[in-house]
Amino acid sequence: MHIMNAQTQKSLLTLGGVILIGLIILGFVKYKNLRADNIKLTSTLSVKEEDLLKTNHEKQELTEALTNANATIETFQGQLNGLSSTVGTLVKLKETDPELLKKYSKVYFLNENYVPKGLGDIDPIYRFEKTKPLQFLEKPEPYLYRLLDDARLAGLDLSIVSAYRSFAAQSGLKSTYKISYGSGANAFSADQGYSEHQLGTAVDFTTTKVGGNFVGFDKTPEYAWLLENAYKYGFVLSYPKGNSYYVFEPWHWRFVGVALATRLHEDRQNFMDLEQRQLDAYLVNIFN
Ligand code: DAL
Ligand code: ZN
């Protein structure tokens, strides 16, 4: 066992004391530095927190501004849609002949220059007399053809004997009737300018069962079918029994559009029962 002398022990204790003091000083310096860092970090943190609060506030403001902008855009979009539908309606109305829903039977008048725009030839398969050309307005022509096709599918024999008649043609026809019937012709034939036939949207139907002079047409299944179904194709009976314009004409049907024809059918009313302004409301959608 090695025995230290007193001098060595003293030196060691002094060295230990010096090291301890050194360590304490070092620890103190380290503590001071850490505290300074801590203070700096705390202040940086509070600055960052403030920034974050500001950013959140700005974000909220921006979100609100965005919501408002979106609402404004939606309002404009709505107004724009409304405008474009109004423009669409106006364009449609401008392109639709206002005469098509006017009351012609002794009320309105079409002059000798009125010829409807867009007349087309009726396909011979739908004509009663295959060699006699007939014309009808092209736009409602598909409705007329569908009506006749469906009548045929139902086993009926329905065809057209008369359609568009010009002012001059009506004038000639009326003169012929007048020679035979005198003023009696006014009961079944319109004066020129007052016939729905001049519109290009009226037709006289017949069937081989009665032929071109129509006698007994009201007793045929073809007429019964028309009464039940013609409205689905936009056609109405212009001169029903007891009308105040002409004799009962079960063969004479006028295209007025599906919406108006359906309304009249459901309400059991005639075209002439409605006021002109009520009829005019259906003009924009007459070919829908
Ligand atoms: N037969 C109808 C009334 C016309 O001539 O138009
Ligand atoms: Zn007729």
Query: Helix and strand string, N-terminal first?
Result: HEEHEHEHEEHH
Overall pLDDT: 91
Poorly predicted ranges (pLDDT <50, ≥5 residues)? none
Spatial ordering of strands, largest sheet: 3-4-6-5
Let me know the largest β-sheet: 4 strands, antiparallel
Structural class: alpha+beta
Helix content: 40-55%
Query: How many helical stretches?
Result: 6
Strand content: 5-15%
Give a nutshell description of this structure:
The protein has 288 residues and is of the alpha+beta class.
Structure explained in plain terms:
By secondary structure, the chain is an alpha+beta fold. 49% of the residues lie in helices and 8% in strands. The strands form two sheets. A four-stranded antiparallel beta sheet has the order 3-4-6-5. The termini are far apart. 25% of the residues are buried. Bound molecules: D-alanine and zinc ion (ZN). Zinc ion (ZN) binds next to strand 4.
